[in-house]
């Protein structure tokens, strides 16, 4: 398939050539004052082969968004991809890839230890009925089991 270059980095990624799970540096932006924002593609599921079910993905998002900030003050945002295969994770002034992997490992171990999902109520969440703590833990466990291959992004 031929495709034209787009305005979005991930649209130009060949999703048939990646091997999930992985953590990929997807972009770096420097501001006028020298602050640097780095964005990572944290891929849990193999594109077009598997995806996360919404309640599990949603609870994993809540848990990771909360716990990751215990391990880094440089996190800007963690958000799910619409294709339900992974998350985007952004940092400010933090460009140490190996440390990002360590932060994710600690965060996901926290998810395994969780006994409830933070903010899953109608005041703090937009779809409070759609959650699964057990589903989130099972996604975290599966991702952690492949910890030693997170840095391998592409097939040869
Ligand atoms: Zn929510």
From TrEMBL:
Its cofactor is Fe cation. Binds 1 Fe cation per subunit. Keywords: Autoinducer synthesis, Iron, Lyase, Metal-binding, Quorum sensing. Transmembrane segments: none annotated. One of its GO terms (biological process) is quorum sensing. Fe cation binds at residues 58, 62, 125. GO terms for molecular function: iron ion binding; S-ribosylhomocysteine lyase activity. The keyword Ribosomal protein does not apply. Its EC number is 4.4.1.21. It comes from the Bacteria. It catalyses: S-(5-deoxy-D-ribos-5-yl)-L-homocysteine = (S)-4,5-dihydroxypentane-2,3-dione + L-homocysteine. SUPFAM superfamilies: LuxS/MPP-like metallohydrolase (SSF63411). Pfam families: LuxS. It is an enzyme of class 4 (lyase). Involved in the synthesis of autoinducer 2 (AI-2) which is secreted by bacteria and is used to communicate both the cell density and the metabolic potential of the environment. The regulation of gene expression in response to changes in cell density is called quorum sensing. Catalyzes the transformation of S-ribosylhomocysteine (RHC) to homocysteine (HC) and 4,5-dihydroxy-2,3-pentadione (DPD). Belongs to the LuxS family. Homodimer. PANTHER family: S-RIBOSYLHOMOCYSTEINE LYASE (PTHR35799:SF1). This is S-ribosylhomocysteine lyase. It comes from Ureibacillus massiliensis 4400831 = CIP 108448 = CCUG 49529.
């Amino acid at each position: 398939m031929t495709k034209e270059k787009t305005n979005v980095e991930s649209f130009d990624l060949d999703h048939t050539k990646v091997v999930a799970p992985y953590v990929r540096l997807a972009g770096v932006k420097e501001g006028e004052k020298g602050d640097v924002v780095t964005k990572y593609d944290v891929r849990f599921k193999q594109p077009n082969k598997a995806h996360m079910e919404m309640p599990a993905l949603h609870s994993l998002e809540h848990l990771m968004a909360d716990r990751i900030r215990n391990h880094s003050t440089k996190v800007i945002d963690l958000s799910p991809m619409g294709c339900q295969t992974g998350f985007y994770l952004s940092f400010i002034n933090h460009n140490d890839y190996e440390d990002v992997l360590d932060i994710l490992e600690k965060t996901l171990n926290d998810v395994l230890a969780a006994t409830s999902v933070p903010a899953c109520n109608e005041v703090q969440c937009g779809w409070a009925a759609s959650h699964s703590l057990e589903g989130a833990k099972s996604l975290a466990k599966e991702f952690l089991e492949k910890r030693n291959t997170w840095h391998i992004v592409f097939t040869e």
